[in-house]
Design brief:
8 helices; globular; alpha/beta; 244 residues; binds NADPH dihydro-nicotinamide-adenine-dinucleotide phosphate
Length: 244
């Protein structure tokens, strides 16, 4: 039977490329977006033209009710869900003392609460089936801490803790939970980096290049595949060696 994946934040960047790779690997793919409806619909049209089964679904993952509605809608559409990829995320760069409480809360609401809402929504289905894979997306800054990215780093560290704890909790129910923790990846999220910043990051990276969304998507696809079946609670880091 064809497997099914729900990818959050799949309208752009890493999520969009992950949707492409999963669809092309034969997964029925639900493409969640929040604001970028045009991009999400264009991606669906692109993949449908290639003959794949894809389904766009609008939801703000920071809203628990919208997360439940999204999962319910995907289950109605595909009858089954095999993989959840919690990719949606936001970042903001400035001194910690310049962050407002609202900005701090919004970063946690999307990056941490969003993962909680989506996992909580799929777990009854996964537990009932005694199967399912959850993939979270952290960041190298969640592992090592990034200057001027304190709220983002803290939220991504929380995602790693969440992944490890949930892996222990649901492993006996046949569910795996793993995290992919990318290094610097060329997407709109890094649009504020100057060419000089990118050169400096490239120089710091043993593999001497900036990562691509495809590098991250490949790691997610591997963990979702049968080859990833004995992994749980792990952090896989496509980062070119910038953090070892
Ligand atoms: P982009 O900014 O390119 O894309 C972010 C995606 O998240 C968009 O599809 C956006 O949807 C979606 N999104 C944002 N807020 C919400 C929300 N409330 N509900 C649902 N979807 C939402 O980011 P990247 O592709 O670069 O990042 C993807 C993930 O990878 C993030 O978790 C990020 O933290 C992580 N990451 C990125 C790295 C990088 O260098 N780029 C490095 C390490 C980790 P829409 O546009 O429809 O609103």
């Amino acid at each position: 039977m064809q497997k099914t994946v729900l990818i959050t934040g799949a309208s752009r960047g890493i999520g969009a490329e992950t949707a492409r790779q999963f669809a092309r690997a034969g997964y029925q793919t639900a493409i969640n977006y929040f604001k970028s409806e045009e991009a999400a619909l264009a991606l669906c049209a692109e993949l449908r033209a290639e003959g794949f089964t894809v389904f766009p679904i609008q939801a703000d993952v920071s809203d628990p009710e919208q997360a439940v509605r999204m999962v319910d809608t995907v289950l109605e559409k595909f009858c089954q869900l095999d993989i959840l990829v919690c990719n949606a995320g936001i970042a903001q760069t400035k001194l910690l003392s310049d962050f407002t409480i609202e900005e701090w809360r919004r970063i946690f609401a999307v990056n941490v609460d969003g993962v909680f809402h989506c996992c909580r929504a799929v777990l009854p289905h996964f537990v009932h089936r005694k199967a399912g894979k959850i993939l979270t997306v952290s960041s190298m800054w969640g592992q090592t801490g990034g200057s001027c990215e304190v709220p983002y780093s803290a939220s991504k560290a929380a995602v790693i803790g969440f992944t490890k704890a949930l892996a222990k909790e649901v492993g006996p129910s046949g569910i795996t939970v793993n995290c992919v923790s990318p290094g610097v990846i060329q997407t709109e999220m890094n649009g504020n980096l100057t060419p000089r910043d990118l050169d400096a990051l490239r120089e710091e990276t043993p593999l001497e290049r900036i990562g691509t969304p495809a590098d991250v998507a490949a790691a997610l696809l591997f963990l979702a595949s049968p080859a990833g079946d004995f992994f749980t609670g792990q952090v896989l880091a496509p980062n070119g060696g910038i953090l070892i």
